[in-house]
Amino acid sequence: MVYYLHIVKNFFTEEGIIVSDSVTKKIVLTGGGSAGHVTPNIALIPALRKAGYDIYYIGSYNGIEKKLIEDYNVPYFGIATGKLRRYFDPKNFTDPFRVLKGFAEAKKILKKIKPDIVFSKGGFVSVPVVRAAGALKIPYIVHESDMTPGLANKLSIAGANRICCNFPETMRLLPAEKAVLTGTPIREELSMGNAEEGRKICGFEDDKPVLMVIGGSLGAQSVNETVRYALPRLLPNFNIVHICGKEKMDNLKLTLPGYKQFEYVKNELKDIFAMADIVVSRAGANSICELLALKKPNILIPLSTKSSRGDQMLNARSFEQQGFSIVIDNDDLDEDILVESIEDLYENREKYIENMRNSNLHSATDTIVGLIDNELKIQ
What we know:
Elements: E1 6-7, E2 11-12, E3 18-19, E4 23-30, H1 39-50, E5 53-60, H2 64-69, E6 76-79, H3 95-113, E7 117-120, H4 126-135, E8 140-144, H5 151-154, E9 162-165, E10 179-181, H6 195-202, E11 210-214, H7 221-234, E12 239-243, E13 259-262, H8 269-275, E14 278-281, H9 285-294, E15 298-300, H10 311-321, E16 325-327, H11 335-347, H12 349-357, H13 364-378
Helix pairs in contact: 1-13, 3-4, 6-8, 7-11
């Protein structure tokens, strides 16, 4: 069967979005609530445009997804959202009504856009969108980053045409006829960094290997503190670039030779990754997929179940079993364990690089765009 194609006259929608007069394929991306539910969608945008898609985004009115999408010239529609909680909160009594409002708004928006397909990266904002797509008989694909599906994706799986995932173990938790092991799309620019430029950015003038420490967008206090305790033992052998999170910099160490701190990096990240020989990181799904795609030997220090649903621990153990990573439990983290693990990782880095090179999860973007195209062909 041929693609569903729509010929649309020029007009302004009520939301102020211009829809062009063209014959094209159209896709709605959705996902939000955290950067992790948005960045894989952003990574897909160049490939989708190259494949001939007009792209639209549905997120919350003022969530992080709206800010992140602004730079990509993608029409953005906001809807009401309600958080899906597994714990008691007074908002549990009111948020279902926000979800219902979001469903009605998403349905109205989808009727106007008339997309051929919806791609959901999850997060609570995605549930009204995929439910509305299902009600309108619009096919949709869901992507699950973590080892076990989050609540939003659990509510979306039944009507999904395909479910993409990162881990072999996840395939056993999903309907066999829908599950596809794809990996996570990463931003194309991350693979275009320049190591020498990274050294200039950080002010590293010698040829010592570079240790990169990254704790996620909010930083990781226990990791930050342990790394700083260990600096006297690490700096003789490594230059260290430390992305420590907002307001987490140590001002007493700003001029310490061989140690460069950032609260957050954006444009410089590709060059810092290119420069890094080994990495210490939390175990968020998108972060570790970036490490895999870039073939960076790594130590993962996952959030414990005390401060998360345990997905980072599962993610990390899977990477450890596949030979991609060394894992340190957050509760076991101390200076001695960290230093010994860093030394072991660097000494055996080629083994980890080879294991990552042999993985079949290096073309997630192409795989997912191919799935989207195939779904349209069989409709």
